[in-house]
Amino acid sequence: MASRGIIGEAGVRRLLLGNEAIARGAVEAGISAATAYPGTPSTEIVETLAEVAEEYGFYVEWSTNEKVALEVAIGVSMMGLRALTAMKHVGLNVASDPLMSLGYTGVVGGLVIVSADDPNAHSSQNEQDNRIYGMHAYIPVFEPSSVQEAKDMTRELFDLSEKYSTAVLLRTTTRLSHSRGEVVFGEVPKLNREARFHRDPERWALLPPYNLRKHRETLERIKKLGEDLGSWHFNWFAEGDGDTLVVSAGAAHMYVAEALKTLDVRSPLLKLSSVYPLPRRMVEKALEFDRIVVVEELEPFVEHQLRVAASETGRTPRIVGKELFPRVGELNAQLVASGLAKVLGVRYEAQQGPSAGVELPPRPPTLCPGCGHRAAYYAVKLAAMRARTNPVWANDIGCYTLGFYPPFRMADFTWSMGSALGIGMGISRFSKEPVVAFIGDSTFFHAGVPGLVNAVYNRYPIVIVVMDNEITAMTGHQPHPGSGMGPLGEPRPRVSIEELARACGVEFVEVVPAYDVKRLMDAAERAIRYVRERGLPAVVVARQRCALVELREKRRRGEKITLYKVLREKCVGCGICVDKFACPAILRENKVVKILPELCAGCGVCAAICPAKAIVPAGEGA
Amino acid sequence: MRPRSIVIAGVGGQGLLTMGSLLGEALLRQGYRVSVGEVHGLSQRGGSVVVFVRYAEYQPSPVVAPGEGDVLVGLELIEAARRLHLLSRSGLAVVNDFLLPPPAAQKVPSREELVASIGKAVKSVFVEALPLAEKAGSPVAVNMVMLGALAACSRVDVSLDSLRNVVAARFRGAVGAVNVRALELGYEEALKKLREQVQD
Predict the structure, then answer these.
(1) Quick one: which of A391, A538, A601, B158 could link to A369 by a disulfide (CB 3.0–4.6 Å)?
(2) What SUPFAM superfamilies does the entry give (chain B) (predicted)?
(3) Domains of chain A from N-terminus onward
(4) Number of A:B CB contacts under 8 A?
């Protein structure tokens, strides 16, 4: 959903996605490099930067994972240049190893790490609050509270990063990253910096005698920053009536501002955008109130820091927060108004909406029509039945995670990137039934390779099916090392999954087109038998380019797509295509089935698996 | 003025995010402060999707809470029914008269049942968007038909003219012409239905 919409002169007003605004802020800071591994809700930041990189003259890459992305950005900073790296919240877990030491070393060129958190876990495995990482790693944390602020703050954080020679964490949430709001553009500077390696081994080589000294220096730096942030313009006090101070942090401020208007109260307000360290002078002023209400999403991060500050200064205001506002899920203006009304003693009744009063079928996300993963799941399931096994289905993170849902039910667990292999191995060591692990191409490069090497070295009996659609699809089609192209589709070396597997020492490696259900079924059955007999890992690459990419390119080339239709007189109504294969383009109609031409992608797999041969090409469609 | 809230509900792939950003730009041109809240889900296609568009004289937050919506634009009947609770009791539902059962769903209510129960719960207008989109030149333009239908509702201040301008600016050439035509057809159809209701 990104666009070149962030190109423009100072003064231009545009409706931008929060992530696009962050990208514009980075452009206005004069970055030299941006790196990322895609992940919702962070992807559009670097996607947008890739589209304007040539225009503004900086370097952009999709890195193999977040650790590499952060490390590349650190290297750029050591060259005295500005770099941004962006990742989803769980991506920072992968990057946490270099992050923890980055707090000690600090930076030369400005370095902004964007962590896009996902309260409500809209598209994530958890709703971890990455502000805590900042405190853990001594990396200052900043939270914008509007799309405009996201842009402005990103730009200014590069200056701050260099002034205090520290990397900074810009924390956004899904609601800010994926909201559109008005943004007024600023100037794009020409920094004209000389790239020079800042050699300083005592600083960069984290060896025992130096790291304790650095720990001390880091503590000083954080303390100094806390003192200076009292006059930082993104933090502000608003005078008001009453003895209760409302404190809003980051994105929660959007809801607080609206809730105060709804309740028609003018409480004194402290709007915080630097949440670690807290601005000391403002904290002292806040602690003079009798009562403090802290509104923040997820963990009581600011709340706890205020409690500590209160106990350190000997003040005794009543501090409330998470007892009023949920710690699980995201906030909205109504939830905030309800909580504030209680503590401020004003009347407020949350509205109730109407109901249709009908029981509705759920609509879980599904694999697209024409998706190669569907064919692969169908084939591997049949292979397991033919091999008379009931495998443990290890699964990973990507579009193919949707194999969790009926009718496939082929995800007994999904954990974190690459875990299908790691956890799968632990199970396979003691399981009588074989373990079949599904991992996507992008995930394989991200975190699957060390697992694969472990499987060879420690001789694990595990079937690894690489669900290869040649792109990082779920986040919107970003290329990866196996795609053979760079961020804008330009040619790049292609790292071969099968060659890599063979080079690691896997003896059983087969590559099969995913649409070829028959061949894939045979290959998967051979792999299961091989693993059972030899006790060694086997790799099957089920390859089919993402159907959405395929369709888009065919349309661009003006190629016709052959759609499929059902011969009603031949259809026996067995339901295999609907109930077992579950293509969204196929519907039951009376006793037979029909194919919706507007959804059919023309893959033809349904025709191949129809036992009655009732599905045939429908001639040429659009 | 309290913030006005528009909820757009449908199935991934129906063009909801495009509707949200066009609507946001149109409202911006009309002089409002705007927030468009999107959730990019787990799948590229086929999941349940909802987009929030809110506007006011001050910057509104991007989330529509239950009971708060002024207008619900439904691109599919099940999804419209699923998000009905986001409307206020006096809200208006503008719904595409189209049923797309989820793949492999066991119990699916009928089209008639859904139309009747939505109609009973709130004031509503049903538009058959697909024939109008085809008439405009493309079955994909269903989202534009529904945007046009929204502009016909006086509950929210979305003008057909500003929508026409942003659509023409976003899509050039033949696609732009088809989309503008689809907007207009949706607008006329909804206006006709709303007038009939007044006469009833």
Answers:
(1) A601
(2) Pyruvate-ferredoxin oxidoreductase, PFOR, domain III
(3) 13-230 (3.40.50.970), 235-344 (3.40.50.920), 372-552 (3.40.50.970), 560-621 (3.30.70.20)
(4) 194
